[in-house]
Amino acid sequence: MSENIFITDAELAGDDADEGPLAGRTVAVKDNISTEGVRTTCGSRMLEEYVPPYDATVVSRLKDAGATIVGKTNMDEFGMGTTTETSYFGSTDNPAAPGHVPGGSSGGSAAAVAAGEADLALGSDTGGSIRCPAAFCGVVGIKPTYGLVSRYGLVAYANSLEQIGPFGSTVEEAAELLDVIAGPDERDATTRQAPDSNASYAAAADGDVDGLSIGVPTELLEGADEGVVDTFWDALADLEEQGAEYHEVSLPSVEHAVEAYYVIAMSEASSNLARFDGVRYGNSGGYEGNWNDAFGRAREEGFGDEVKRRILLGTYALSAGYHDKYYKKAQDARAWVKQDFDQALSSADVLASPTMPVPPFELGESLDDPMQMYLADANTVPVNLADLPAVSVPAGETDGLPVGLQLIGPAFGEQQVIRAASALD
Amino acid sequence: MTAQTVQQGDLVTVIGLEVHVQLETNTKIFCGCPTEPTEEPNENVCPVCLGLPGALPVLNEAAVESAVKIGKAIDADIPEETRFHRKNYYYPDLPKNFQITQYDEPICQHGELEISVEGQRRSVTIERAHLEEDPGSLQHVGGGGGIDSAEYTLVNYNRAGVPLMEIVTAPDFRSPAEVRAFLAELEEVLEYLGVFDAGRDGSLRVDANLSMISAEEADEDGTIGLEALEAANRTEVKNISSHKGAEKALVYEETRQKNAIQRGRAIEQETRHWDESRGITVSMRSKEEEKDYRYFEEADLPPLRVAGWKAEIAIPELPSARRERFQAEYDLSDEAASKLTSTKQVADFYEDVALEYDPDLAATWVADELLGELNYRDMEITDVEGRLEDVHRLVELVAEDEITAKNAKEVVLREMLDDGSDPDAVVEAAGLGKTGEDEVQQAVVEAIEENPDAVADHEAGEGGAINFLVGQVMQKTGGSADPGDVNQLLRAELE
Ligand SMILES: [Zn+2]
User: Fold this and answer.
1) Domain boundaries, chain A
2) How far, in Å, is the centroid of ligand 1 from the Cα of B50?
3) Domain Asn/Gln amidotransferase spans what residues (chain B) (predicted)?
4) CA of A39 to the centre of ligand 1 (A)
5) What is the DSSP string of B214-236?
6) From the CA of B49, how far away is ligand 1's center (Å)?
7) Cys-Cys with B98: which of A2, A386, B88, B115 at CB 3.0–4.6 Å?
8) CATH number of A6-252+336-422
9) Would the ipTM clear 0.90, i.e. be above it?
10) What confidence tens digit (pLDDT) does each residue in A84-95 have?
11) Is the pLDDT of residue B57 over 60?
């Protein structure tokens, strides 16, 4: 596999692989989702040899549904990146746009579906980590409402923001996978029963957008690449032709969303990643001497630059004297973003924007400029701050590079966004 | 609080406590692992309490229930909702390198506990009490034996995730004796609530802050202003694990500080470790920078609504209330009532016996005879848990006049405790069954016939003579006669 899609090949199936809704289907799983007996590295040297003794809830559900897991996919280290280039295991090429990044952090999962290495894939989305690679690789990716899918077994990056979600070649296929993984889990106290839990997500992919009301947040078009914006409007025109109407809406708070997102995500990461000290698992270095030094050396060696940067910044943001200025302010901004979305969604069934303001970067292009990478998340991170569901669906191409359209719905409004997105399938 | 002013030269001792108690729940606070201690290290563990990547905590509501019980017992405010925070610090016994605890919204706030010191009752303010998870335990092997000097250190996560309640008092204590009284009362209350087992190793851990403040800073009622408290350097004494240990540690620390101040040396603000075996506190010598735990919300645990819980959860009658009731209902002295309510088991047993026989007799038998004999053997009532029916039977034998009180205590009870015999068997074997009236009467007649001198002395009005005769009768009946009855029979016979 020249694209370097998988960190670890595997073949995992449940006892009844012939039965169940995903019987005969192959699924690639992002390497931050725990698989019993198969190493789960999070794209990090720290966990190069870590083999979990348990399955994530979504993995159990895949096995029960008859799916076959074909490998653990490459990703930005601990999910921290937008290109899959921060992986300790090297970058992944974009099957839909060779020489370009597949997006991130779930780049391997999107690439696996785009390259036909798997029928379906699981990723995780903390600030766009499913939707960005779906857009860059020309596949469908769904970021569910916070609490719809169990995070038990997902190695945490920013636990208040992230959700596991599906990739597929079509909206319907991605929705079929969502049907299997969604639903409350007694091991994840943040999961909730969706109000319409009996309805099938796949059945909602009927392409019927007649009478659908679409809000277009003007702020999410500002500063976007021209070719991306043109492709976006073409896709909206397509939806309009099928009976949808659209109008502009405003989300004034989103200008603070990227800052707020990074403060919250890095703060949580600084705590979530503290457990990697080399005592029970992971890189230990085998150092003698003071435990504090030994922890420090294991972490110095095991983590890559981007991870260290985020841990340091997050530690700083939570520190006494800075907590109110950064962390608390970011929480206030998060509440404001939620309010704005509620308001915008009171006058529209779904909101639409380009998933990424730019087409895929060339490999290596953004690595030295973290700010460019952070700003590319402008359209996706507000959705995580607001805990809402969103789909990225292929909208067309610009200069031969895939462009994704993002559709955002109200909390537990997966059906609405799936229905709208399926009209573009 | 109604403080008493304790003058010690010109210095007043001020102590505040942070008490950690393990709550008795079947499973850990955030996972399903058993809390029962086991010999084998790292046996009661799972991905959650080992902090494995991807594992998530789920709150055990039984721990919250216990916390609400404690809140009711100390008359604390319980909020509508309770939530958890992360306390971030690195330590080898902490699986996630953060502890899930409570921060600005603890489950209990503004409570109090009444204690009795030297016959005086006073109330200690409990500022807050919150839930958290216990870390694992460390065993330092070889080398200097400390965490930084041992050859290596073993980590055992069996304890990781056992629910803890941290109870923080105001700096209300003016002496180590008060601290001891408070901790004893607290343990008693917690055991009454059924949320705590004092017998479990490590179930109680105390950190104490002690400072010496000029007596001039104290108001007339002994209250000391916040400013004076903050201005004084205090030491935090760690590693205290019992109420007796707390008193010893704090007496040592109090004396150490007083001596230093008298010699004109400044008290350093530091953490000191109580070395139980050497009976001293030692400086932990770690540089005391202000620790920054970077508290923030634990997003994996949604807030739990506990608004209605206080009303729904019942707690048993507490020691102080029971003590008062015992005094009124059974007409007992304060001392007897205190003894009889010292543990729930003692009080339950007393009531059991008192309801069937004479409450006074029951009080003597439980408070004096039983607890006395147990104390003499360094035993507790919990050690004879399974034998309380036998003790009950013994009281019955006395109440129904089948044996004498003297024999019951000196022979039967002792043999029961020492050899594990049952009371009827001892009575039978030792022939202690009260002698029949005829037999006693015959012994009385014999004693009079055989001791004419004593009879003459008695008739001459010598008081001791009758006692001699009683002794003779007792000897003849093998001690099984009632001395009071014998006395009466003798007097009747001599008239
Ligand atoms: Zn456990």
Assistant:
1) 6-252+336-422
2) 7
3) 348-494
4) 21
5) EGGGB-TTS-B-HHHHHHS--EE
6) 4
7) B88
8) 3.90.1300.10
9) yes
10) 999 999 999 999
11) yes
In 3-state terms, chain A is what percent helix, strand and coil (to 5)?
Answer: 35, 20, 45
Tens of pLDDT, residue by residue over A187-216, are: 999 999 999 878 899 999 999 999 999 999
DSSP-derived secondary structure letter, B27:
B
Catalytic sites of A, residue numbers? 30, 105, 129
Ranges of CATH 1.10.10.410 domains, chain B: 437-494
Do the Cβ atoms of A187 and B56 come within 8 Å? yes
Distance (Å) from CA B305 to ligand 1 centroid: 24
Q: Report the pLDDT value the prediction gives residue B4, as an integer from 0 to 100.
A: 47
Q: Say yes or no for a CB contact (<8 Å) between B148 and A280.
A: no
User: Which candidate, B150, B169, B203, B155, places its Cα nearest to that of B25?
Assistant: B203
Q: Which fold has domain B437-494?
A: Arc Repressor Mutant, subunit A (1.10.10)
Q: How many residues does the structure list for chain B?
A: 495
What are φ and ψ of residue B121, in 5° steps?
A: -95, 135
Interface test with B, best of A291, A293, A300 (most B CBs within 10 A): A291
Quote the pLDDT of residue B460: 85
Buried (b) or exposed (e) across B333-358, using 16+ Cβ within 10 A?
Answer: eeebbbbbbbbbbbbebbbebbeebe
- Residues of A near B (CB-CB distance < 8 A)? 32-34, 40, 42, 47, 50, 52-54, 56, 151-156, 159-160, 186-190, 267-268, 270-271, 274-277, 279-281, 290-292, 295, 315, 318-320, 323, 327
Compute the mean pLDDT over every residue in chain B, rounded to the nearest whole number: 89
Q: Do B292 and A320 touch (CB under 8 A)?
A: yes
Distance (Å) from the alpha carbon of B188 to chain A's nearest alpha carbon: 35
Q: Are strands B235-240 and B296-297 parallel, antiparallel or unpaired?
A: unpaired
CB A118 within 8 A of CB A102: no
Whose tokens are 């093998």? That residue is B478
pLDDT in tens, B123-154: 999 999 999 999 999 998 988 777 777 888 89
Best mutation target among A159, A318, A326 (most B Cβ atoms within 10 Å) is: A318
pLDDT band at B8 (very low <50, low <70, confident <90, very high): very low
Contact assessment for residue A302 and residue A283, using Cβ atoms and an 8 Å cutoff? yes
Q: Tell me the percentage of chain B whose pLDDT exceeds 90.
A: 50
* pLDDT value at residue B10: 79
Q: Which two tokens stand for residue A342?
A: 């509620």
d(CA B84, CA B258): 40
Q: What is the model's pLDDT at position B290? A: 63
Asked whether residue B422 carries a pLDDT value surpassing 80, the answer given is yes
Under a CB-based contact definition with an 8 Å cutoff, are residues B78 and B60 in contact? Answer: no
- Taking an 8 Å cut-off on Cβ atoms, the answer to whether B53 and A275 are in contact is yes
Residue in chain B nearest A315 by alpha carbon: B294
